Amino acid sequence: MNILLIGSGGRENALAWKISQSAKCTKLFIAPGNAGTANYGTNVQLDPNNHDVVKDFLIKEKIDMVVVGPEEPLVKGLHDAILADEKTKHIPVIGPQKQGAALEGSKEFAKAFMMRHNIPTAQYKAFTPATLADGEKFLETLKAPYVLKADGLAAGKGVLIINDLDEAKSELRQMLSGKFGAASSTVVIEEYLSGIELSVFVLTDGKSYVILPEAKDYKRIGEGDTGLNTGGMGAVSPVPFAGAEFMKKVEERIVKPTVNGLQKDNIPYKGFIFIGLMNCDGEPMVIEYNVRMGDPETEVVMPRIESDIVDLFCAVADNRLNEKSIAVSNNTCCTVMMVAGGYPGSYNKGDLMTGFDKVKDSILFHAGTKLTSDGIVTNGGRVIAVSSLGANKDEALAKSYANVAHIEYNGRYFRRDIGKDLDKYYQK
Fold it and tell me: Were 95 and a residue from 55, 136, 271, 309 both cysteine, which residue would form a disulfide, CB within 3.0 to 4.6 Å?
């Protein structure tokens, strides 16, 4: 099969690494890819939001399957465009159509879906500029902290958690006045959930599903989960506080009702569902849906999957996922994300990277890198994920940190405490 993978980050590098191992994959293209994805296929410069250009490429290269990494092309209807064209409609796409992508593209749509199908989540209400006063009154009925979410895609910056009521009202006014552009023309306010977060991933053909390895990621830039939110500074899989009993609750109360809800609402869905969860004293509650794999969670999930991922994708395309099971390694996988100095604020690009030749016993998943005539240089805030498998968390982390030490570039930064908060669960 000739496969086109859309995206350019660490998630796509991990997917490219996994897809390239399949006996079913003849040729892999990544659009646009990065310096790491080039090790597993051919990078091509395509704008995934230019549907005509993508379709022309599919025809020219005789592509047999499209795998969409990031959410934006899905929310903007790439799958729909491929389906609508007589010349490309036969090509399966792993990633939902626009209707299903609204689970991530609209927080209000997702919350209404959860309420409609009795999926456990925080109580909420949605507000627009016309109902600003009602929004302020609703905030007064809640206890701090206050959770405000831009309804649309806001590049991971549209969720605010605020402890002061007056500040929450001020932020609500700013959001509805365009703080996040069109993304915050509607704002969802919801009750705060207390607990510890994790991510659960499902691959579905819209009727059947397989549950992939779960993961926990680390969003804050500073050690001890301090400072600004980032796209993710590291991840661990499996998650020690998500044992068999908890995961059974997740499947029965969340995964099954979600897939059944898609069918009841006549929403076709082929692809990944990322379920952001809060473990509230052993009870799972949904924080949000995403319609793709997480990043950097993909960098710890893919190394633990022993099954042929393309074989699973083919089963999704043919509505045969009920015939498949998934084999998962018992090993732990941990990733440490190396980022540019100054990230998530302003940061440099174009800094030369060295030390790749010294890396052993880890997998490097490039995120923001670029191949130049001088070598590999930084090309983003999150630069490279160093992932390792081990018999346990400490062994996997030791490998990752040993190899992080080899990779040098100007201003490099990484958190040294990934997974430390989980030690108490292993000791039980």
Answer: 271
Pairing between β-strand 271-280 and β-strand 196-204 as defined by DSSP bridges:
antiparallel
Sign of the Cα pseudo-torsion (20, 23, 29, 31, in order): negative
Three-state secondary structure string covering 374-400: CEEEECCCEEEEEEEEECCHHHHHHHH
Phi, psi of 355 (to 5 degrees): 100, 0
CA 46 – CA 55 distance, rounded (Å):
10
Cβ–Cβ < 8 Å for 29, 4: yes
Rounded Cα distance, 325 and 236, in Å: 23
Which backbone phi and psi does 307 adopt, to 5 degrees?
-75, 160
Residue type, 187: V
Taking the mean position of all CA atoms in its chain, how far away is CA 371? 25
Residue-wise DSSP of 194-240: PSEEEEEEEEESSS-EEEPPPBEE--EEETTTEEEE-S-SEEEES-T
Find all residues with CB under 8 Å of 152, minimum gap 6, and list them: 105, 106, 107, 158, 180, 182, 183, 184, 185, 186
Tens of pLDDT, residue by residue, the chain (428 residues): 999 999 999 999 999 999 999 999 999 999 999 999 999 999 999 999 999 999 999 999 999 999 999 999 999 999 999 999 999 999 999 999 999 999 999 999 999 999 999 999 999 999 999 999 999 999 999 999 999 999 888 776 788 899 999 999 999 999 999 899 888 899 999 999 999 999 999 999 999 999 999 999 999 999 999 998 899 999 999 999 999 999 999 999 999 999 999 999 999 999 999 999 999 999 999 999 999 999 999 999 999 999 999 999 999 999 999 999 999 999 999 999 999 999 999 999 999 999 999 999 999 999 999 999 999 999 999 999 999 999 999 999 999 999 999 999 999 999 999 999 999 887 64
Cβ partners under 8 Å of residue 419, min gap 6:
234, 236, 334, 393, 397
The pTM score is: 0.94
Token code pair at residue 75: 């929310």
